[in-house]
Specification:
TIM Barrel; 9 strands; 33% helix; 8-stranded parallel barrel; 10 helices
Length: 252
């Protein structure tokens, strides 16, 4: 694959409803190297691909994901909020459906576990179980802001690749130091560090690379990040508009 990797954030979410099969297919059609997506559990313990803990924004429904079983979630239309003329009747995918879709591709999958302390073990165990039955396991990187979830997943299956996620608004000022971020990622045995673009300064990136970590930066929709990635050593760019960055990568 070319460098840097270009990963569609929730698919090609600038042009299709996020975290849907339509967005994932479009991302690959326009030149992405893979996708990033979010996973939560239904009431009956099935991993579903959705970002928010409720359906208000993408499903136009006030209910919570965790309060609905799989059959109920499959009845929610998560396309019409984006464009009712083009994306009506898009369903919430299950993790199994996404893994199956990518069996026929070489795409990389960044799976973000949306876990809290209460459901940490159930979600990690459910993701591990499906990955261990999938042909694409070696192309999956599991990421999470909740670093104990990464640590737990590694205890369940140390062969699954992981990324420690860091966001500016949830980092305490003292922990925004590059050394601290890198050490926190290493402490949970992550192979990658995934930085919000405002945390991705050259010094932190260099520290991460020196420690053997791959570096992903999110969410970037400016084509100038291609050149910056090559200059600073960023391995992966996660973007809402993979077509824009893929075109720039070809031209630079």
């Amino acid at each position: 694959m070319q460098s840097p990797l270009i990963i569609g954030h929730r698919g090609a979410s600038a042009h299709a409803p996020e975290n849907t099969m339509a967005a994932f297919r479009l991302a690959m059609e326009v030149g992405a190297d893979g996708i990033e997506f979010d996973v939560r559990l239904s009431r009956d313990g099935i991993p579903f691909v959705i970002h928010d803990d409720n359906l208000r924004r993408t499903g136009l429904d006030p209910r919570r994901v965790a309060d609905l079983n799989a059959s109920e979630l499959k009845q929610i239309d998560v396309g019409r909020w984006f464009d009712p003329s083009s994306f009506t009747n898009e369903q919430i995918p299950t993790l199994q459906e996404v893994l199956d879709l990518f069996e026929s591709t070489s795409g990389v999958l960044y799976l973000e576990m949306k876990s809290t302390g209460a459901e940490r073990e159930k979600l990690a165990s459910a993701c591990c179980a499906l990955l261990n039955q999938s042909q694409v396991k070696d192309r999956v990187i599991v990421e999470c802001f909740d670093l104990p979830s990464i640590q737990l997943l590694k205890q369940i299956d140390s062969s699954i690749k992981t990324a420690a996620l860091f966001e500016l608004r949830i980092c305490r000022p003292a922990s925004r130091d590059g050394h601290r971020l890198v050490e926190d990622a290493l402490a949970v045995c992550a192979e990658e560090i995934a930085l919000h673009h405002r945390l991705a300064d050259p010094r932190t990136i260099a520290l991460a690379k020196q420690k053997g970590l791959r570096v992903a930066v999110w969410t970037v929709d400016d084509a100038s990040w291609i050149e910056r990635a090559r200059t600073d050593g960023i391995d992966t760019l996660i973007t809402n508009d993979p077509q824009l960055l893929a075109r720039e990568r070809e031209d630079v």
